[in-house]
């Protein structure tokens, strides 16, 4: 990435960011919005934007991203580009392992496809000693109607599994938890409230509040649920803003 000007670096320092070199690696967990469900494929590689391939190697990123389900586009290609342009990192690497239509119970059920994929991905990360800086969590519409206590319990169980495996490769990433249940006519304010409470749970040291995807209008959605190109760009901006806030808080 082109070096920051002295003026740009000063602005970043005033905002509370370290303008020095930084390579960010991010695991993405969730359902279809976290995977390759977007209406536009970003197929042109972006300099210094990478993904983890099925063997655990860092390779140039392009849609559809390798571990995630679906054959469309992602949020993470435009987000990575925006992170690099904003000077938040010198390189960005994503490993999205999301699967469309999955509830938290699916992720925790031995023998389910997504449970097996999760363990394969975590094994690869441990074997290759991949160190993650963040986990982005974007899930919820498949849990509409789930009691609040059950949703919270399943989330923390999933967190315990993933975080325990990641520690084997020496990483203890912070989790940024999005608020999401909106898909067509589906919406569950109680699940959203739990997602928000999780993000605020430990005084901004380990969990952080992510973007609220629910208000994103139908003009940004290709099928009343998943995002079109304008929606992919808009929600990437929302993630960028959340990440900037998290980085400010981490500097305090």
Description of the structure:
Keywords: Hydrolase, Signal. It comes from Uruburuella testudinis. Residues 27-241 form the Sialate O-acetylesterase domain. This protein has 252 residues and is of the alpha/beta class. It has a single domain (38-251), classed as 3-Layer(aba) Sandwich (Rossmann fold), CATH 3.40.50.1110. Helices cover 37% and strands 15% of the residues. It has 7 helices and 7 strands, in the order αβββαβααβαβαβα. The protein has helices at 6-14, 76-85, 104-108, 113-127, 148-167, 189-199, 229-251, and strands spanning 23-30, 49-52, 58-60, 91-96, 134-138, 174-179, 207-212. A 7-stranded mixed beta sheet has the order 3-2-4-1-5-6-7, with helices on both faces. A hairpin with a 5-residue loop joins strand 2 and strand 3. Helix 2 (76-85) crosses helix 7 and helix 5 (148-167) packs parallel to helix 6.
């Amino acid at each position: 990435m082109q070096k920051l000007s002295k003026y740009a670096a000063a602005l970043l320092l005033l905002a509370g960011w370290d303008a020095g070199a930084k390579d960010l690696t991010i695991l993405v967990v969730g359902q279809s919005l976290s995977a390759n469900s977007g209406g536009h494929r970003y197929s042109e590689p972006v300099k210094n934007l990478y993904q983890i391939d099925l063997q655990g190697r860092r390779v140039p990123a392009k849609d559809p991203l390798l571990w995630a389900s679906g054959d469309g586009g992602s949020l993470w290609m435009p987000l990575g580009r925006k992170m690099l342009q904003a000077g938040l990192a010198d390189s960005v690497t994503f490993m999205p392992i999301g699967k469309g239509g999955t509830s938290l119970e699916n992720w925790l059920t031995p023998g389910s496809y997504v449970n097996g994929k999760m363990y394969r991905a975590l094994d690869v990360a441990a074997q290759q000693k991949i160190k993650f800086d963040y986990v982005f969590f974007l899930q919820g519409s498949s849990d509409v109607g789930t009691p609040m206590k059950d949703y919270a319990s399943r989330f923390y169980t999933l967190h315990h599994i993933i975080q325990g495996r990641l520690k084997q490769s020496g990483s203890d990433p912070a989790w940024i938890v999005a608020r999401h249940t909106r898909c067509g006519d589906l919406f569950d304010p109680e699940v959203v409230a739990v997602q928000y409470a999780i993000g605020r749970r430990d005084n901004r040291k380990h969990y952080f509040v992510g973007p609220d995807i629910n208000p994103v209008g139908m003009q940004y959605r290709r099928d009343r649920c998943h995002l079109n190109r304008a929606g992919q760009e808009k929600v990437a901006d929302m993630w960028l803003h959340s990440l900037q806030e998290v980085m400010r808080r981490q500097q305090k």
